[in-house]
Amino acid sequence: MAQKVKLSKQHSQQRSLYIGKGLFFWVDEKAKEHPLSPDTTTISATKDGYSEGYAPSGEIKKSLQPQSLSHANIQTIQEAYMPPEAVALVIRFSITFKANSGKLYRCDSIEMNEVVAKLAETYKNVGGYRVLARRYLENLLLGVWLWENQCTLETEICLTDYKTKDQLIVDDVQARCFSWDLDDFDEALEPWIDRIERALTSPKDYCSILVEAKLKLPLSAEVFPSQGFVEGESLSKLLVTCNFNGEEQVVFTRHKLGAAVHQIDDWFSGADYRIRVSSYGADREGLTAHRLPKDGKDYFTLLQNANDYLEILESNPDLNGSKMNDIHFIMACHTCGGVRPKKSEK
Question: Which of 44, 122, 138, 280 could be disulfide-bonded to 289 (CB atoms 3.0-4.6 Å)?
Fold first, then answer.
């Protein structure tokens, strides 16, 4: 075992993926695009909450009457639907890959700065960034970022490189996203993996890509953009919007898109699906964390073993071997960026 690396009290890193807002447009029969606007609706919902019938202690409310549970629960909400005349929905956003994982943005430890830089350089030399690049690309092409909008009649996703104008189009995404099938695109993926890998490792080769999904949906189908949560807001459900030529347009926030693109971590014990990269392997849907400190697989524990990982990388390892799992995770955290200081005890 090599010497442990001491964690730094100041430790922050710029993210390597910069994502714009995801804009929603509906398309008419003449192929003209229109911004998709939210609908504000007042609904008469039922009283289904636990507190309607029970006290905090768990006892049945003494004042409870049958008729009180039948009263309407009036709510004002925002929703988004396809107009009846729409023939398709288009969602597009931009993503830029930059080489920011090779150094810390702010750090008070010379040792940590040097180790992070050397780890990135060695990881680059063995082709480790190709593993990350492929996973980011898969998430873009398989529509992970569409979230609840994945179940469609037909989905096509197109990537366009802003510099070269090269395009990559994947059809039948509505089926591929469940089978994780891109086998027939193996050859076509390689140049895109190359450009993302270069962007993540060379500052001058940053890469900007336009991501566009075209969805065919049933008549007046509901659409699911980002929801906003504003304290004190009168609406029970508020959608995130932006102004498009004077019209209100629903969007995906860059945080929601980023959460999907960064779903590349399946390097933890017992993993059978990928989760968003985070220090403790937070799994919001499963209401758990897969990288607990007691198991020694969280970011902070693993980072202290960086010198051991340098030895592994210098031995020309199998990139898909189990010895690389912890290294891929650390580098994915560095690509994700964030503030991860060691707090001093008070």
Answer: 280
Q: What are the tokens at 207?
A: 């890469």
Per-residue model confidence as pLDDT tens digits over 144-176: 999 999 999 999 999 999 999 999 999 999 999
DSSP three-state, residue 100: coil
166: number of Cβ within 10 Å: 13
Q: Degrees (nearest 5) of the Cα angle 125, 127, 130?
A: 145
- Residue 102 falls within a domain, yes or no? yes
**Number of domains into which the chain is organized:** 1
Q: Which two tokens stand for residue 155?
A: 């989905």
Residue 133 lies in a domain: yes
DSSP structural state of residue 318:
-
pTM: 0.93
How confident is the model over 198-257, as pLDDT tens digits? 999 999 999 999 999 999 999 999 999 999 876 655 556 789 999 999 999 999 999 999
β-bridge partners, 13:
338
- Looking up tokens 């993503």 gives 95
Q: How many CA atoms lie within 13 A of 295 on its CB side?
A: 14
CA pair distance 26, 149, nearest whole angstrom: 14
277: left (phi over 0), alpha (psi -120 to 50) or beta: beta
Task: Tell me the residue range of the domain where 203 lies.
Answer: 14-36+84-261
The answer to whether the CB of 275 falls within 8 A of the CB of 263 is: yes
- Residue 126 counted as domain residue: yes
Alpha-helix residue ranges (DSSP H) falling in the chain = 66-70, 110-125, 128-141, 173-179, 186-201, 254-261, 299-303, 306-313, 325-336
Sign of the dihedral defined by the CA atoms of residues 229, 234, 240, 242, in that order = negative
Q: Give yes or no for a contact between 210 and 133, defined as CB atoms under 8 angstroms apart.
A: no
User: What letter would DSSP give residue 204?
Assistant: G
Q: Using alpha carbons, select from 111, 11, 6, 102 the residue that is nearest to residue 339.
A: 11
